[in-house]
Amino acid sequence: MLQKRIVVCLDVRDGKTTKGVKFKNNVDIGDPVDMAAEYYRQGVDELVFYDITASAEKRDIMIDVVRRVAETIFIPFSVGGGIASLDNISAVIMAGAEKVSVNSAAVRNPDIITAGAHKYGSQCIVVAVDIEADSSMPSGYGVVIDGGRLKSGRDMLAWCKEVENRGAGEIVLNSIDADGTQDGYDIRATRLVSRTLSIPVVASGGAGQPEHLFKVFTEGCADAALVASMLHYRDYTISDIKREIASSGLFIRMDW
Top-level CATH class of 5-247? Predict the structure, then answer.
């Protein structure tokens, strides 16, 4: 049985970690480098850094922040936001990231997935898929882009299948409806994607307590779970979450 992973998400805007609810009303909560160092100390398995306004503002990602985080932590580190070309992918990898996350640009130009996987390997290419409930779509969920600002017209499951076929090594499935609510992940959407694809699926959006992670790992069949608010607001530590999940019998990395 593969270990389940806990991934901390740092949404960054103007050089500061920020958090909102359903992609709105964001407030700044700290320095991303300091926060990355703290979560690394606590024992997080992976970390993901999203420059959340880079795509909408049509600018490159903040490479200086990426480099500072990469120099601070020694665990797998994924970076996304404003990744629109192979040059962008190269810059992020050269700055120290192990994985590159593409989102809006991949929807607009899916060839970036294929090209990135061919040049750097599937293990480096993560596709973040932002979804919201949409009864007009076959799966019941539509894909949105530009930080939730624009409906893409794509169905969640059809897009995830294409992403896998194009060579991506992992999908981060983020529910905008659940984002920041701390009421739990979208289990139905996560299970639908996880059972359809053969690549790892990271559940994102809605974590508020350890039992939410246990549920998305078991009922949602997720390979990993992304957390933010429950850590950023100091309701829990990584140690707290891992101990509770391990006590329920799931296989998770424990190093203390």
Answer: alpha beta
